Amino acid sequence: MIMAVLFTYHVDNGGCYADDDSSGSMLGKPGNFKMIETKHSPPTKKSRRDNNSEKYPPAASLKEVIMEQRIWKEFPEDLFEAVIARLPVATFFHFRLVCRKWNSLLNSQSFSQCCAEVSCSQPWFYGITREDVNTAAVYDPSLRKWHHLSVPTLPGKIIPVTSAGGLVCYSDTDYWNFYVSNPLTHSFKKLPRRSVHPWPRVVVGMSLNGNSASNGYKIMWLGGNGDYEVYDSQQDSWNPGTIPSTISLPFFLNFRSEAVSVGHTLYFMRAAPDGIVSYDMVSGVWKQFSIPSPLYLTDHTLAECGGRIMLVGLLTKNAATCICIWELQKMTLLWKEVDRMPNMWCLEFYGKHVWMTCLGNRGLFMLSLRSRQMNRLVTYDAFSKEWRKVPGCVLPHRRKKQWIAHGTSFYPCPTAIA
Amino acid sequence: MSSGDSGPSSSKQLVQQPAAAGRSPNQPPLLGAGGRKVIVLKSGDEEEFEVDLLDAMQSRTLRRAIEDGCGDGPMPLPNLTGPVLAKVVELFRRHRGDPRWADELQETEKEGMFKDYAPQKPTAEVKGFDREFVSVDRDALFDLLRAANFLEAPGLLDVTCDAAADAVMNMTVEEVREYFGLVNDYTPEEEAALRKQHEWAFQ
């Protein structure tokens, strides 16, 4: 009843403004509401936005006045989703305790849409350690913190291989079985078995059909002999394909590098000739680009930043080692050096044999640098060109720093469903 | 609330020039400085604000009303108070050409009204203004959020929702409930189960 008075302003169906007959008494600032006669207000039109009235049945008049002021100061119900979608992901999970309604947002289509609209957060990193295969080590760069998420129990060892739209794709070590899950919510799916006999080693990539996982996704594996298959989540099946004869085979793929996805296109790094092959997941068109590799390049991986193709690699010359970042020049098809790890950090590696593994190659890259008795994790933000050291990953109730054996980066999305 | 002697033309606060009162409904929209079309918005407490038509189009609600021919006389917005509307009008002016709403406008544009208009990225100055705009207390922010919700203005929604998220980000669950006036409707058992389910978020 009170609400009906307070919220009579609205656009009526014709789109024009209608002054309600009670408008004379309702104008003014919140402080004036005590003066409003509330007991016998005529049944006025309700705003289409007003859906709170059922929750606040009429009560004694003093209570009404208090309630009235409270309602006036109330947060607009419609905007909860938009505000919550802007919270950091860990905060969102924490705030599910606020009330049932906030908890139910996980299954809300409109909340999922809100998340897709505002998502500009940094990717997280999903890694598995050798010691504890039942817990994922997930790094949140905004909080600079490792979270330890429990993972569904699976037969044998599975490793994260790629991701898209908040979903992480895993496979067993011989790439026979593939799984997809949202590590935040445990939404989990086992994909059907591949139809083609697996090539011993493959490179895997994943892309979305639309701007979020709700429109479906595609996963592709590519073997060095040119065998490949594409999984389509909407058909829930793998479809094999054949590489056109214009692409030179075999590939000599860089198996240490996850494929990079830009829009619908996947990029794979190859050698002999050095360069990149790309596959358009929608049109099915293959392309190859010959790009000479930088000199003295050892461990390296393909990466992506805002649609640009990048290369992250270890340069080793004499006893000196350095991490370099290159960007692909699309006109000249050359790698152009754009950044290097700070000298002071490189000095640590002087004279040592270093191995580099890239644990995430989207926008923010995570690199694991190891040599005898040394294990460093660093992130490189390709947008801001910032290098950062990552705190050691220590499991709860343990002391020893963990070595992250495999990993991928993913954009955390509470509403993505596998 | 306005006193008895205040007519439509005795506005207390005007952003640009006083709006002409008493025009016939069939007259074309007012022309402001430089021949730009302007409309007049009237707050719940009878304050009038002259707004560039282009700026007003940032609000989907106002745009629908203008397209339906309601933009000829002063447009009453009884649920917005003068001070809130003044802030909103100022934000519209600063967000002119903001791609957050401008792309949508170009798509729906029919009469070539905004043919010279080009979306521009928000400058540092605009971002500074946005920060200042939402540096207000909780109740004032909620006023702006309600205005944004009612006016359906993407730029205004963006700025105010960001501010609300920033405000609660580092709060405890209890403080969040208090901030938004929400009631805990969980049983202690349910609460414990939820904590267990996503233990990592509480570590």
TrEMBL record, chain A:
Keyword hit for Disulfide bond: no
Keywords: Repeat
F-box domain location: 69-114
Annotated region (Disordered), positions in chain: 34-56
Protein name in the entry: F-box domain-containing protein
Lineage: Eukaryota, Viridiplantae, Streptophyta, Embryophyta, Tracheophyta
TrEMBL record, chain B:
Region (Disordered): 1-34
Domain of life according to the entry: Eukaryota
Domain (SKP1 component dimerisation) ranges: 154-201
Alphabetical UniProt keywords: Ubl conjugation pathway
BP terms from Gene Ontology: jasmonic acid mediated signaling pathway; protein ubiquitination; ubiquitin-dependent protein catabolic process
Biased composition (Low complexity): 1-11
Functional pathway: Protein modification; protein ubiquitination
CDD domains tied to this protein: BTB_POZ_SKP1 (cd18322)
Domain SKP1 component POZ: start-end pairs: 37-96
Family (UniProt): Belongs to the SKP1 family.
Subunit structure: Part of a SCF (SKP1-cullin-F-box) protein ligase complex.
Role according to the record: Involved in ubiquitination and subsequent proteasomal degradation of target proteins. Together with CUL1, RBX1 and a F-box protein, it forms a SCF E3 ubiquitin ligase complex. The functional specificity of this complex depends on the type of F-box protein. In the SCF complex, it serves as an adapter that links the F-box protein to CUL1.
Protein name: SKP1-like protein
Organism: Colocasia esculenta
